[in-house]
């Protein structure tokens, strides 16, 4: 047990006395220091798309690190792996001739996209467009912009005044989006941030038709549509990006997590030609923004090897197949007295929702259910205040998925049903 480690998103008064120490991983399994194994039903924090322990990625990282472990890319500096990765990611993007700006993670990417949006309008002669519209239950990371944009209750509490010019709308209503634009004035809107499937806010797919309609409304307002694909990108939504699947053609796409399957940290922003053009034009302005590790060559090598696996094993297609399997699996648990239903159906991510009467008796039930499931051998995550996240690696086999559902039931069975 470490007495010096301050865990993220943790109540340290409880955690410091009782850490759960993960020691190694292989495929969809992780092992604690005592050697007990757990099925990783969340792919860590959504990101382990190809599973743990893929030596191909580890070898690629080591080979690149031996050649050039790290070098910055500010100004005119580049390196071969990052140049190749940018070409490759641009090739997966919905719009031809997209550009890719690299960061170190999802929160970096959200801040980058927000700054790009406002700066874009400044350099194109509409500096009054500063308002960012966001949705209830949204999670856009924990930097300054992301904390301001988030819609998960509690996450912004206690930090004083956050960013101005942020407007929040209900996540599931395009009428509310239109009304918010009308109220602020279309000419004030810079961008709309949208997770195609809300992830950390509880796995909430958009209602049918929502995404296309929201895209249309934002276009009509002349604003930028920013798809936050930090969770959905690189296969989890059943295509390279949910934006491809739903033909959204966003102006900006934020990504992270799945680009490397988490083997090393990376994020980025895919920019459509509309947004990049003024910055790439002869004599165009500079974007005074970037991070020390933007374009890190060893991270890029990990991403390239990860993308090789995603392509070779057809894992985006597999996610599409698994979408139905997940719905059926979660549905099969709804006969349990502690289960009320599930949110799933778009991509290989879902939430098992606990029964409202049980939640009314005990608001801590999601945490208790997560702990009981873990004790039974499957790692989920309490999410959205009412359920458990299920988003395993895309490399999971059918037999392992059946095992996941069986272990989840065993965990729930270990809890008292109550009266
Ligand atoms: C949709 C979305 N955006 C941004 C982030 C922030 O990413 P990071 O934790 O890598 O900073 C997350 C993290 O889960 C996310 O789910």
How would you characterize the overall build of this protein?
With 419 residues, the chain is α/β, with parallel strands linked by helices. 38% of the residues lie in helices and 16% in strands. The chain contains 15 helices and 17 strands. The strands form four sheets. A seven-stranded mixed beta sheet has the order 4-12-11-10-7-5-6, sandwiched between helices. Strands 1-2-3-15 form a four-stranded mixed beta sheet. Strand 5, helix 6 and strand 6 form a beta-alpha-beta unit. Helix 3 runs antiparallel to helix 11 and helix 5 packs across helix 10. The two termini are 38 Å apart. The site of pyridoxal-5'-phosphate has 15 residues, from helix 5.
Residue share in helices?
25-40%
Strand-residue proportion? 15-25%
> Mean of residue pLDDT?
97
Q: What would you report as the Rg, rounded to the nearest angstrom?
A: 21 Å
- Low-pLDDT residue intervals, each spanning 5 or more residues: none
Count the DSSP helices: 15
Structural class of the secondary elements? alpha/beta
Bound molecules: pyridoxal-5'-phosphate
Multimeric state of these chains?
single chain
- Topology, number of strands: 17
Shape: globular
Strand order of the largest sheet: 4-12-11-10-7-5-6
Rounded to the nearest angstrom, the distance between the terminal CA atoms is 38 Å
- Sketch the major β-sheet: 7 strands, mixed
Give the structure's gist in a few sentences:
With 419 residues, this protein is α/β, with parallel strands linked by helices. It has 15 helices and 17 strands.
């Amino acid at each position: 047990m470490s007495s010096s480690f301050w865990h993220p998103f943790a109540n340290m008064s409880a955690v410091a006395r009782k850490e759960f120490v993960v020691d190694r991983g292989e495929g969809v399994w992780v092992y604690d220091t005592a050697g007990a194994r757990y099925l990783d039903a969340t792919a860590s924090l959504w990101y382990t798309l190809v599973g743990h322990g893929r030596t191909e990625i580890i070898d690629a990282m080591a080979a690149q690190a031996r050649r050039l472990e790290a070098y910055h890319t500010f100004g005119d500096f580049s390196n071969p792996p990052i140049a190749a990765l940018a070409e490759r990611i641009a090739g997966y993007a919905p719009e031809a001739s997209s550009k890719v700006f690299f960061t170190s993670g999802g929160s970096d990417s959200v801040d980058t996209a927000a700054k790009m949006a406002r700066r874009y309008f400044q350099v194109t002669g509409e500096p009054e467009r500063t308002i960012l519209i966001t949705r209830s239950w949204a999670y856009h990371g924990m930097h300054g912009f992301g904390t301001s944009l988030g819609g998960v209750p509690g996450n912004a509490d206690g930090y004083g005044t956050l960013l101005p010019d942020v407007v929040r709308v209900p996540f599931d209503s395009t009428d509310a989006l239109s009304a918010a634009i009308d109220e602020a004035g279309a000419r004030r809107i810079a961008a709309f941030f949208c997770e195609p499937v809300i992830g950390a806010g509880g796995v909430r797919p958009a209602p049918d038709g929502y995404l296309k309609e929201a895209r249309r409304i934002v276009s009509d307002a002349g604003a930028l549509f920013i798809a936050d694909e930090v969770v959905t990108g690189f296969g989890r939504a059943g295509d390279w990006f949910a934006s491809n699947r739903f033909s959204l053609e966003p102006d900006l796409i934020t990504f992270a997590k799945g680009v490397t399957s988490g083997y090393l940290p990376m994020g980025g922003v895919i920019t459509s030609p509309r947004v990049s053009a003024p910055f790439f034009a002869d004599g165009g302005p500079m974007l005074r923004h970037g991070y020390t590790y933007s374009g890190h060559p060893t991270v890029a090598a990990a991403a390239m090897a990860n993308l090789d696996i995603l392509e070779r094993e057809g894992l985006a297609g597999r996610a599409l197949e698994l979408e139905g399997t997940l719905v059926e699996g979660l549905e099969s648990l709804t006969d349990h007295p502690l289960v009320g239903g599930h949110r799933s159906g778009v991509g290989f991510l879902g939430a098992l929702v606990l029964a409202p009467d049980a939640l009314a008796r005990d608001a801590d039930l999601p945490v208790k259910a997560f702990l009981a499931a873990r004790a039974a051998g499957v790692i989920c995550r309490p999410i959205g205040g009412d359920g458990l996240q299920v988003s395993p690696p895309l490399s999971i086999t059918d037999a392992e998925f059946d095992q996941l559902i069986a272990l989840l039931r065993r965990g729930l069975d270990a809890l008292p049903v109550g009266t």
